[in-house]
Amino acid sequence: MPIKFEMPLLSPTMEKGNIVAWHKKEGDSISTGDVILEIDTDKATMEVESIYEGTLEKILVPSGSHDVLVKTPIAIIRQKGDSDESVNQIINAINDDKPIKKDAAGNSNEAFQPEVVSKEIVSKTDKNKISPLARRIANDYGIDISKIIGTGPGGRIVKSDVLSNQSSSEPQKQSVKYTDEPISQTRRVIAEKLTQSKREAPHFYMQTSANVTELLKLRKSINDSAILDTKITVNDLIVKAVAKAMKAEPSINVSWNNGQIRKFNQIDISVAVSVENGLMTPVVENADRKNLEDVSKEIKNLAQLAKTGKLRLEQFTGGGITISNLGMYGIDSFLSIINPPQASILSIGPAKKTPVYDKNDQLALAQIMTIGYAVDHRVIDGADAAKFLEVLVKYLENPIYLLI
Questions:
Q1: Which residue is catalytic, options 23, 66, 203, 377?
Q2: Same domain? 26 vs 153
Q3: 203 found inside a domain
């Protein structure tokens, strides 16, 4: 029987997606595991592998289609032994089930079709996949992107590709003052979800600081010793400290779930990773049960998968808290918006040399790190949040306990 191939659900929050490109054309044979198309979801641009075998009989929704609802039929796959009549029956049934568009007066007209971007955008998407930043630089310098070979994921043209083809030292003068670019599905959903979070979740904020002088010394000692197979980062140590603090104060390991408090039975920590089209939050599961080396290796692997768009669904869903670390950018401090459906997020600032009084009441320089904490007041009370931060600071200031 012919298979009605539908827009897949590629993340728990996905409601619709954009079809970036079909990797198979009508009449091509398909085997299990073949990449058949590329979809821009609410999380990332992902390649979709076939779980079927047969022939791609008909593409119902073409490349460049935007806002295609999950479970919308997008193609027909003919299996061995399927007749033309059975294929036509499936296609006719799909056409009969399509909702009807209505004009301003409420009159029915043509059958609904997913919105398809202009031919210009389609050609750029299919033939010259390019990041928004790279496109803007190309426009400024008058560079023909059709002559550029992309070195990014899936042949995507990125900033470095454009700069290497720069033909002049000065950008061309433009006749317009700005250019409006369509946003990716990932950026669109980030905007929608964070707007919803800020509007619906009653945020309250706390800020504290930690003397991480000993933590930085420990990191240097571990890395200089070359005992481990990986270099330990400050973020690795922070993840371990957060895991231990959550274990000590489980009251913050919760989320709001349709009028109920969901309490998590394991400590899973989301780590914010900056990617080309936005932000990904891969999850380190059972972070409290893993040693520092394992946590470090897992974070590096997840970050690489996030930046290349290869994270699996289970690797970026869940998590009881998110850690967003911008300390490497030299800011003083910041506060984040909660990443729904989670109930809290930590904002890690830089460690800066600061005069403090030591145990002998003498002024000395110490590395002081700023920490912001945004909390959903529906499920976490102020006292519990304060106790969690207090325990977290103790672990950061006494990092030897992170190795136990």
A1: 377
A2: no
A3: yes
